[in-house]
Amino acid sequence: MPSVLVQKYCPIHEHDNTVRCCSCERLEFVNARYISLGDERSLCMECMESAIMDTSDCQPLYHNIRDYYEGMNYVTC
Length: 77
Known about the structure:
This protein is of the alpha+beta class. Helix content is 27%, strand content 8%.
């Protein structure tokens, strides 16, 4: 089970501006390092490991998925 699903915290952190990961919603805890994305969003290190930060990084995956569906005669945009 992902650790975020068992994270316990005081309810006051729902409204006290404690930093949250924009991907998994995990609250930043003491001694944790979150990466600021510069637009009021932050990522925890666990999510940062799999985050796609540049569109060009996901282009090969996009093309593989598109080709797969087109090979099954599905219409793609």
